[in-house]
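Hi V.,

You were right to ask for the full record rather than a summary. Here it is.
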Amino acid sequence: MTAAKVVKLGWIGAGRMGFEMARRLAKGGCAITVWNRTRAKAEPLAKDGAKIADGLPELAGCDIVFCMVSTYDDVKEVIAGPKGLLSGSARPKMVVECSSISLEGSAELRKILSAKGVELLSAPVSGNAKVIKAGKLTFVVSGPRSAYDAAAPYLDMMGQGSSYVGEGELSRIVKICHNVMLGVVTQCMAEITVLAQKAGVPRHAFLDFLNKSVMGSTFTRYKAPAFVNLDFHITFTPYLLRKDMDLGLEAGRKLEVPMPLASITRDLIQSMMGAGMTEEDFSTLLLHQAKASGIELKPEDKAVGDGLSQ
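Predicted structure:
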């Protein structure tokens, strides 16, 4: 793609998600410069053609700068902090912010960037590192339509496309709604899987049926191996899920929308964390449900597809 070789891209954040997203752009032939707080974590991207920056101001001369970090405090520091992207005299044309942050934080960031003449696209994602590797990452995007049109080819390179939902911070509420559903569906999946098992149905057999039925989904298929074999390596932490559930409930209060299922699920996530389940994937909700149901789960050691592998 010719445009990818001409437009200069900057990338902030090489964590589990950011690393794989930046890698897809680098492998796609983009002229991309990557910065990460711990430089060593970004350095492997040099093998794929990326340049590694020593400081954030080095990215300010890029046309489009992507940002993928953990919290709004991190976003604000890397963009507007004393050593941040805007700390020098140069300015990028556009920032594409992909982290999960609140509507208020996103609006504040838009104001900060606008004062410097920089456009903002709010572009949170659905997926994790494995989803990115499978080419199935998706974006929900809001901001100026012209900016979206300019950035869309690069969003497409990182996954299977993006959805433009309008101006301002509308994409943030969409992502919050998405992650509230993530929590509620996972808790529901845990409850019915434990119910079936306690009645005598092996987890792999139950989930095989579920995933072949009209109730199966990309997500239930993706989580099936973890539920069957109790492999809870981290894709999304309980802390991050709790944060997003809180954001959803806060939005519900402000907009006068009752959210009883989300509220109960948030409490169950908190209960799980209070029981010490904080260091593995949030899908340990299954183990918490099993304990509450008086059974102990063991890995079934069955080969189960995740729906992502070709």
